[in-house]
């Protein structure tokens, strides 16, 4: 997203705030780090002094808030940390943005706030029924974001997306995790039955969705960013096994069935008609998306030994201003 903003809007100053934990790498932005309209600041959104100083010194017009702890399994083990980052950090950003009078505050949320749905596609009016600490923290943050529109008329917009994949994704996420393990001739861990499914949205489509919301989104509204491409986790593993190995043996030989998480939603079907009404639709096919991801080439600086390591605060938010 930052690369797109820097390249698409050379007349704007793009500011990237990131805590740079183990899941982050500045090498991902090497193509723009010398651009005159790009600035990097290392910092934590939970630090009120840092955030307030940033908004006081910079003439910020628009905030994209992507900062979050996102690993569902970790949220069951460290729920307080998810609350600190996802809820309290959002509150810190909102307060500073409101006092600075920004023109737009875009909050990236998740389809998981809806909870599990077997048959019904969830639109933006469906009740939220989060079923894990991560989803609950995002739902709580959404409520705080929308309250700033109701009380202060801060022009906020909430987006809810399916699982995004693409270049530079950290190893804890399912697609790069499976690929990296397969390249080491190791098995893909399948939680429970593996029949739980997810919709996958390529990062190019996600970026276009955020740009559409930035340009055409209505303050105070929520927009689903959904993909029609759905795979069960076991189907995903088999797809990646075919792509990543030359073995002709039984696919099951590459699967390692492990204990399921305390609760694992079966699927999250979403209706994205509202966002498509603004002119957006997902265009990247699954084969094209995997090819464009080029995961190994994009992550050659990453050690495969970190595949199952714990990533602490994944904190990144970016804001930008017109110059």
UniProtKB/TrEMBL annotation:
- Report the cofactors: NAD(+)
Q: Which family does it belong to?
A: Belongs to the NAD(P)-dependent epimerase/dehydratase family. dTDP-glucose dehydratase subfamily.
For this protein's source organism, the top of the classification is:
Eukaryota, Metazoa, Chordata, Craniata, Vertebrata
Task: Give the reaction(s) catalysed.
Answer: dTDP-alpha-D-glucose = dTDP-4-dehydro-6-deoxy-alpha-D-glucose + H2O
For this entry, the protein name equals dTDP-D-glucose 4,6-dehydratase
What keyword terms does UniProt attach to this protein? Lyase, NAD
MF GO annotations? dTDP-glucose 4,6-dehydratase activity
Q: Name one Pfam family in it.
A: GDP_Man_Dehyd
Please, which domain of life does this record's source organism belong to? Answer: Eukaryota
Instruction: Please list the residue ranges annotated as the NAD(P)-binding domain.
Output: 9-293
UniProt signal peptide: none
Q: Which InterPro entries match?
A: dTDP_Gluc_deHydtase (IPR005888), NAD(P)-bd_dom (IPR016040), NAD(P)-bd_dom_sf (IPR036291)
Give the Enzyme Commission number: 4.2.1.46
A single BP term in Gene Ontology: nucleotide-sugar metabolic process
């Amino acid at each position: 997203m930052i690369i797109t903003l820097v390249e698409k809007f050379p007349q704007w100053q793009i500011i990237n705030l990131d805590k740079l934990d183990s899941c982050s790498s500045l090498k991902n932005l090497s193509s723009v780090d010398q651009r005159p309209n790009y600035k990097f600041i290392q910092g934590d959104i939970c630090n009120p002094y840092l955030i307030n100083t940033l908004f006081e010194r910079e003439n910020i017009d628009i905030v994209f808030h992507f900062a979050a702890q996102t690993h569902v399994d970790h949220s069951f083990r460290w729920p307080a940390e998810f609350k600190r980052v996802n809820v309290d950090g959002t509150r810190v950003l909102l307060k500073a943005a409101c006092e600075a009078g920004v023109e737009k505050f875009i909050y990236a949320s998740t389809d998981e706030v809806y909870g599990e749905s077997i048959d019904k596609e969830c639109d933006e009016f469906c009740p939220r029924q989060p079923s894990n600490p991560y989803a609950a923290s995002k739902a709580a943050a959404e409520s705080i974001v929308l309250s700033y529109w109701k009380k202060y008329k801060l022009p906020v917009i909430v987006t809810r997306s399916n699982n995004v994949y693409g270049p530079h994704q950290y190893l804890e996420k399912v697609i790069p995790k499976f690929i990296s393990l397969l390249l080491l001739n190791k098995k893909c861990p399948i939680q429970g039955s593996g029949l739980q499914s997810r919709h996958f949205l390529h990062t190019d489509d996600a970026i276009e969705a955020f740009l559409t919301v930035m340009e055409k989104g209505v303050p105070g509204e929520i927009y689903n960013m959904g993909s029609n491409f759905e795979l069960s986790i076991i189907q995903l593993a088999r797809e990646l096994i075919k792509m990543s190995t030359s073995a002709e043996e039984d696919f099951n030989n590459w699967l390692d069935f492990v204990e399921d998480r305390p609760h694992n939603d079966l699927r999250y079907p979403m209706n994205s008609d509202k966002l498509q009404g603004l002119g957006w639709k997902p265009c990247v096919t699954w084969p094209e998306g995997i090819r464009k991801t080029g995961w190994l080439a994009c992550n050659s600086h990453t050690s495969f030994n970190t595949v199952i390591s714990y990533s602490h605060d994944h904190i990144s938010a970016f804001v930008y201003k017109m110059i």
